[in-house]
Structure formats: structure tokens, C-alpha cells
Prior knowledge:
- The protein is mainly alpha-helical.
- It has one domain.
- It has helices spanning 14-30, 32-38, 40-45, 52-77, 86-93, 101-125, 129-135, 148-182, 191-207, 210-215, 222-246, 248-263.
- Helix 8 packs antiparallel against helix 12 (248-263).
- The protein is globular and about 55 Å long.
- The N and C termini lie far apart (45 Å).
Amino acid sequence: METNTHSQEATFDWKLFFILWGMVIGGVIAAIPFSLTLQAEKLKTAQLPLPLELLIPIQIVANALIFGLFTGLGLYLAPRVGLGLPFLSSLIRKEKPAQPFRPVALLALVIGVLAAGIIAALDLRVFSLEAHFKALAISVPEPPTPPPWQGFLAAFYGGIAEEVLLRLFLLTLLGWLGCLIARCQAATLPSPIFWIANVLTAILFGLGHLPATAAMGIPLDTFVIIRAIVLNGIAGLAFGWLYWKHGLESAMVAHFSADIVLHVFLAF
């Protein structure tokens, strides 16, 4: 069974909840320009129930409520399987963390950049949508490329909101259910249960990108689905491992770094 340095306390930390929830809401708002650019063509012909100026605030509130639930459940379950946010928790409590943050952040940065490089290379050489649909003689619209500044803002959504949803909530929930079934004796996540939860989370992470792909007018055939699972799953597995070994903050740094490479540097 793997060891970890996360707090085993089961007391719900409301201060941590509101700080993290506020960060998530900020990430949701930051991603709006990026999302609007991706859906620009669809919005031109869409029959909206309300003006966009009203829909956006409503969606922000709805997302805030949903993410509030995910954040709360994740924070409630995480200490019960040895997971959590050790650095932010220590900072709030004015305690010294069990390990220094700088080397962890550097490791996460490197992993995030490497993951982005692998994704970009596979997207170009193995999973090229342009080459795939050209071989099928199918004409599809070229996906819009949001400008780098929008990609930079969207990286906060990926690094914060998606990590709260996928790692803090989903991976934690799956790990907790696995421990419940296996009747784990200690408040830690055994290696086999973690990897099952991590793989499932990574697959769902990939599938979760398909609605945005479809919204850009790209047909969801088998190739596109496998592409989404593989490209996003690679990063998801790495982020999950960081969460397990070093806490959610490290997964956030890695995800943010990967998004900066993919949506900022490669957008020029």
C-alpha cells in the first residue's frame, strides 16, 4: 500500500471549502471568453431561450452551485482515503506542511509540460482530425483557435475547476467507494484501488471533452472518441497520480501548465 503525507483528519474545513469554491468560480468566469470563441459559429444560428447577456450570468450561478456541491463532497470524502489539499490546508492553519511546496510544484510543472508535449505530438502524428476526415472524404469545419490570452484565462478553469471536479470529487468518490467495498482498514487509498479509480476518472475526463468537440461541428465517430480518451487520458492519469502522491495542489499546477502549453504557446 502506498504511503502519503495527507492529513487524516475527518473534520470538515469550512474555510478551505469557501476558499477553494471561490477559486473554482473564478476559473468558471475566466473560461467564458474561450468558450464563446469555440462556440461562436453555433451561437450565430442557435435559438437561445434568453439573450446571451442573461444566459451567461445564469450559467455562472448554476455552475457555482453545482461546483459547490462537488467541492463540498470532495473535501468531505478526501481525508477518509488519505487525500486532500495538504499545502493549502497547512497555509490556512498556519502550520508547516509535511513537505516543501517548491519541489512538488516543480515536479508538477515538468509533468504538465511533458504531458502537453506528448498530447501535441500524438495529435499531430497519430490522431490528426484533419487527416482522418480527409481520408474519409468528409468535410468538417476547421476548429476555431482562441487567441492566447483566452487560452491563458481558460487554463485557470482547467487547473482549478476541472481538478476539483475530476480529482477532488470523482477520483476521491471512486476511491472511497472502492475502499468501502474492499473494507480498507486504514484511512489511506491502496494502490490497486487508486489505479482503478484513476483510470476510470481519466477515461471520463476524455469523454467529457466530446460535447465541446460536437459543438464545433465535428462528427463523433469511433476515431474521435478514442482520440479524446487517449489524449486527455494521458494527462488525466498523470494528474491523478500527483493528486494521490502530493495533493490536489500539485495536480492543479500540472493541469494549468499543460493548458498553458496547449492553449497559449501552441496558439501563436
